[in-house]
Every structure is written in C-alpha cells, then in structure tokens.
Amino acid sequence: MSLQRRLVNDFMRAIRELAGGVFIQVPDSAEALTSEQASEHVERYFRGAEISAEQRVKFLKLIWDFVGTEFAGRQLQYEMFYSAAQHIVDQHVFHYYGWAHGLELVDVCLGDYELTD
Asked: Which of 9, 46, 88, 91 is an S-S bond match for 53, by CB 3.0 to 4.6 Å?
C-alpha cells in the first residue's frame, strides 16, 4: 500500500514525459478528422506506422483523460489518500510487517542458524 501511493505519481509523470507536447497538438474534436481543411493534415501528422490517425487521436485522448483532465486529478487524489495520509500508511506498514521472519532471514544470511519453513 505504501509503495503504490508513491508509484502512481511516478507512473503518471512518466506518461506525461513520454507523451511530450503531443497533448497540445491533438485535435480538439472529431471534426478535424472529417474537415476538408484539416483532415489531410491530421492524417499526415498523426498516423503511425501501423495505426491510423483516427486511432492514434482516440488513443491520445484516452491517455489525456487518464493524466490531464479533472477526472485524472481526482483519481490521483483518491489513489494518494484513500487509505490515509502517507505517514499513517507507513506507520501501519511498520506496525504490521512480519519482522520475525525478516530477522530470521538476516540471521540466516549471517550464518547464525538454519531457516525453517
């Protein structure tokens, strides 16, 4: 639980960095895909090697919903605080961790006695 709360921030940041400025360039509506003036440019600049411009635009819009919208902000808040503030979660992890088994592994590594099941 403690690690997940930290990784979700790193994951969302990595997605934003991988996407770069593409979210700024994505057409704001489906009209760009059918417009006489814009469709040629959208197809040229958004198509991929194995994906059409329309599929890529839809995919980018989906990613934006995950990392950049109001929904994304609320979801991040939820993931960060649904169980408690970070210091509370860390206290729970510390309190309920199986210290006996961990200490036994340390002793085995140091050669004090054999590991039991």
From this structure: 46
How far, in Å, CA of 16 to CA of 63, rounded?
9
CA dihedral of residues 108, 110, 113, 117 (deg, nearest 10): 0
Token pair in block for residue 116:
């039991």
Residue 12 has pLDDT above 80, yes or no: yes
Predicted pLDDT of residue 111: 83
- Residue 22 CB neighbours (<10 A): 13
- Rounded distance between C-alpha atoms, residue 2 and residue 6, angstroms: 7
Greatest mean pLDDT among 28-32, 52-56, 88-92: 52-56
Helices 2-19 + 70-81 axis angle, to 10: 160
Token pair of 86 as six digits: 């970070």
d(CA 93, CA 75): 23
Residue 38 has pLDDT above 70, yes or no: yes
Distance CA 29, CA 22 (A): 15
